Amino acid sequence: MSAAPTGPATLPPGTLDTLARGRELHLDHYGRRLPFALLGGTGLRQRYAELEGERAGAVFEALDASGGYASACLGAGHEVVRRALDRGTREAGYATDEIGSLERSALLTEVLGEGGLWTDHFPAGEYHASGRNSGSEGMELALRLALETRFDHRTLRPATGRGERDRILAFEGAWHGWTSGLVPFLNRRHYRLGLPVPDPSRPYGTTVDHLPFGDETALAGYLSQFGDRLLAVVVEPIQGDAGILTPPPGYLRSLAERTRRAGALLIADEVLTFAKSGRFFAMADDEGPVPTDITVIGKSIGMGAQSVSMVIARKELTVRGSGAVATSDLRPLGCAVIRDGLRHIVDEKLLEHSAALGEQFTAALREEAVAAFPELYREIRGRGVIQGLELTEAAAGRLVELREHIVRAGVMVEFMAGAGRRSAGLRYVFPTLRIAPPLITGPREAEEIVARIAEGSRAFLGRPE
Ligand SMILES: Cc1ncc(COP(=O)(O)O)c(C=O)c1O
């Protein structure tokens, strides 16, 4: 359990003004930001200030069930991260991707070398990795690695048998980032309208197709029509922004097998799911890991201290000379934080712990949210520390207000857009409250989070205790 942060219940003079002025200077792409500002925090416990109206200046505590866009896997101010930053700053130095570094080599051999932590998914000697600043950049590199297979890297002419592969398959409701190469993957009008997308009629152009997620029949039909034109498939093993949607059992394995048989590349976007599903990678089932050609991890890999991503790709996948140079590629300080954080997660069995925590959340939210407030919540689903509480249609229309009540009741939560309308007769998915607390969440804190969500829901409905 994390210690409660201490501090006054109202802000010292001048602080509210600083917060308000800073808010004005921070680009607002939401249209309406939450009327709160973070003052600080330790572990899961955070202190927030009210910024608007009669409450302005009031200070309250909230437990973090969000992980800050699901990234703070060790909570705030974790000792392991503090020590790694200290060690890395004092000893690791800095080096670019042009030259080796001891810290980077230590990390990569620990995870991908012989007997390494992730070699059940990525057999030693068969994969290599690169680092980027963010999940979006990692996904861009993954896309680039797939596109590069269409070319002979020496002559830069289309590679025999691959040049004509000009289709990429993504899924309805997907979120992979917002940079321009990724915009075509987002099949929702809101995200795409008016933004430039690659022109399929131009030389080397590609077309992105979308299928309903988890539908084997649609997949088989698509592959029989376009399999020999397919370059790559891009999939989130648990769809995040779509509302924490898990595919039917066996779907991911079948997707991998069918993709391989079609001669296409399978790209798993595990930016969100990394270290959240009760294991490091969610591309897995009862039989074990599901093989991929490229896997991108982000968010939690930065241990909440840095925004980084890592692209793990089959060794034969690479880019033309100097074609993916990045200032952010596995810098030694970053590697120190990742390595010490991963060791801590393994030593403390935090993944196993999070699997049990997930069961606790699912059971408690089913009873204390879905059953207790059927007018607000439709379903709870997910696993480990990636759970989704889907809103009803009526509640979806008042999402902003509901969220503010839950935060004031003392728990920080975030909402996913929901997949909206899907094809193949799949039902509409409404916005979904994402529960993705740090891995260090204790059972008592989990209880408290659920109780506070219920309290905020009651306050929203104006229902007495
Ligand atoms: C599945 C998935 N892929 C990619 C991204 C993009 O990551 P970033 O925000 O670090 O660019 C996200 C972010 O939410 C994500 O959930």
UniProtKB/TrEMBL annotation:
A Pfam family recorded for this sequence: Aminotran_3
Cleaved signal peptide residues: none
Coiled-coil annotated residue ranges, if any: none
Cofactor: pyridoxal 5'-phosphate
GO MF terms held by the record: identical protein binding; pyridoxal phosphate binding; transaminase activity
Taxonomic superkingdom: Bacteria
Record-stated family: Belongs to the class-III pyridoxal-phosphate-dependent aminotransferase family.
Name of this chain's protein: Acetylornithine/acetyl-lysine aminotransferase
